[in-house]
Design a protein that fits this description.
This protein is α/β, with parallel strands linked by helices and 241 residues long. The protein has a domain at 71-237: NagB/RpiA/CoA transferase-like (Rossmann fold). 27% of the residues lie in helices and 21% in strands. The chain has helices at residues 4-18, 38-50, 65-78, 92-102, 186-197, and strands at 82-86, 108-111, 127-130, 139-143, 146-148, 153-157, 172-178, 182-183, 206-209, 214-215, 223-224, 231-237.
Length: 241
């Protein structure tokens, strides 16, 4: 009768011939690479410093401000965003009050700390509070860093005066956006962020939001408000003359 060590040896030889079984784990081979050459290092450094762009559609290369504005409005509305065009920033409080009334919402608004400069005293019946979103907040107002004409997207950065929860927790999200902050393409946004950072750190979070939250998981039918706001409303301040 074979000993235990003999049986183990036989089993090992058998597995070696057949290969690992269906439940066995096989380690992936490790990639081997040598040190980068000086030329390769220079090429990588140049690419990181230059931020070259890939091929872009014609709309992403648009430079006319009026056409960029119209393209943004068209793309945003196609994504179920409502857009109200305002002649000045002073019109924001009345526009918010009108939105709340038209949607039969309570006259309460959670503000991003960066949105306190508007003349809220003009709408004394609207109760405003500031800070990160709370569970009971139904409407939030935040300022956008930029708007992307190519996709109709809003760009919102995080920071001490820009709590990210305001972008996603309330049922209605109202965003202020200046026409001078519109850009043609997403690449333009990153150029603007790098310029603002001046070689320092970029914001911890940059959200690109295109339309209200939605899902098509249930019978392939689109439902709004699945994972965030069911309504996205943009107050577009036309400050370009």
């Amino acid at each position: 009768m074979p000993t235990a060590s003999a049986r183990v040896g036989h089993e090992r030889r058998f597995r070696k011939r057949r290969g690992p079984g269906p439940g066995s784990r096989r380690r992936a081979p490790r990639a081997r690479c040598g040190a980068l050459t000086d030329d390769a290092k220079r090429e990588l450094d140049q690419r990181l410093a230059a931020h070259p762009r890939n091929l872009q559609p014609a709309v992403a290369r648009e430079s006319d401000a009026a056409r960029i504005l119209e393209r943004f409005v068209q793309a945003a509305e196609a994504a179920d965003v409502t857009v109200a065009r305002l002649s000045s920033a002073d019109a924001v409080p009345e526009a918010v009050a009108g939105y709340l009334q038209s949607h039969n919402l309570p006259p309460r608004l959670r503000l991003s700390p960066g949105a306190e400069s508007y003349p809220w005293e003009r709408v004394p019946l609207v109760e405003t509070s500031r800070g990160a979103a709370r569970g009971e907040d139904r409407v939030a107002l935040t300022p956008a860093l930029a708007g992307v004409a190519e996709t109709g997207s809003l760009v919102l950065e995080s920071g001490p005066d820009k709590p990210t929860a305001l972008n996603f927790l309330p049922e209605h999200h109202v965003v202020t956006l200046r026409a001078s902050e519109l850009v043609a393409s997403p690449e333009d946004v990153w150029d603007r962020l790098r310029a603002a950072a001046g070689g320092g750190s970029l914001p911890r979070t940059v959200n690109l939001i295109t339309g209200p939250s939605r899902t098509g998981d249930i019978e392939l039918t689109i439902h709004l408000g699945a994972h965030g706001p069911r309504a996205l409303h943009v107050l577009l301040i036309e400050d370009q003359g």
